[in-house]
Amino acid sequence: MINRILTVALTGAVFFGAVGCKPKPQFKKVNGVEYMMVKDEPGTPAKPGDVIEFNIVFKVGKMDGKDSVMGNSLKEMGKSIQREMPESRQYGDMTSVIALMSAGDSVVIRIPVDTLKTMLKGQPLPPYMKPGEFASYEIKMVSVKDKATADKEAQQHAAAQNQMDDKTLQEYFAKNNLKPAKTNSGVYYTMEKEGTGDVINVGKEIDIKYTGKLLDGKVFDSNVDPKTGAVTHPLPIKVGTHGVIPGMDEGVQAFKKGGKGVLYIPSSLAYGAQGSGPIPPNSILIFEIEVTDVKEAK
After folding, report:
1. CB within 8 A of 261, min separation 6: which ones?
2. Is the pTM of this model over 0.90?
3. What residue ranges define each of the domains in the chain, with the CATH number in brackets?
4. pLDDT by residue, tens only, the chain of 298 residues
């Protein structure tokens, strides 16, 4: 649900003003979008290219205090959303409202369900949207930073996180009596079986059998049938093309065809501070892998 909310809110989706419905006095319009500024703090508004951090709640109802909450980014993701501010490209683009906001501001954007119905041109609305109601977006701006400042802070955070990750990994290795090797960028690996043939390098295409775990042992992804141990779906990787996380892309290059082992990937070479789905932010990942095929990439 929340991915759909974000797509609507920040990728240039177009919503036109109400058809035959006058907005309440406290609502204003900018670029065809109805909005109400709930909290307006002093500060510089977001501009294209800035890195913005915000929370968003999506509701449907009559805006009478009884609306149904359909999505809440902070509850669903466990953290604020961070995005680069896009440009407002066309009439009815909700980004026009975001561009009025500075850090600390809160705004409500509303779109009449009747307007959505008109826009969809006969296509059915979701069953939770009724005529005469509104789809509303409550957005709270946490921070607005220029790209240079945001990048510098991200680099500082990554450096500090790398130190913490390495300390955590060393403690894990000591506790489990492991003595892994280490790649140039910081991926650790243990090798149960090296495999045969040429070493995997950039330009090769490989298939791997894998199980991905968090450091506490919780499995978040696997292509191995837990009952039979067979591969349920091969994972092809074109090495060096960034089709997988950096730690995986580099780690597999320590193996050959038939090679089997474990990769220990710091968060900065995995999903970083953002996390992904079941993977929390700043998570060290463990991948049990086996290279089942190696060939030249087409």
Report:
1. 189, 190, 191, 192, 193, 254, 255, 288, 289
2. no
3. 2-146 (3.10.50.40), 161-296 (3.10.50.40)
4. 444 444 444 444 444 333 344 444 489 999 989 999 999 999 999 999 999 999 999 999 999 888 999 999 988 877 888 899 998 888 888 899 999 999 999 999 999 998 888 877 778 888 888 889 999 999 999 999 999 999 999 889 888 999 999 999 999 999 999 999 999 989 999 999 988 887 888 888 999 999 999 999 999 999 999 888 888 988 899 998 889 999 999 999 999 999 999 999 999 999 988 888 889 989 999 999 999 999 887 7
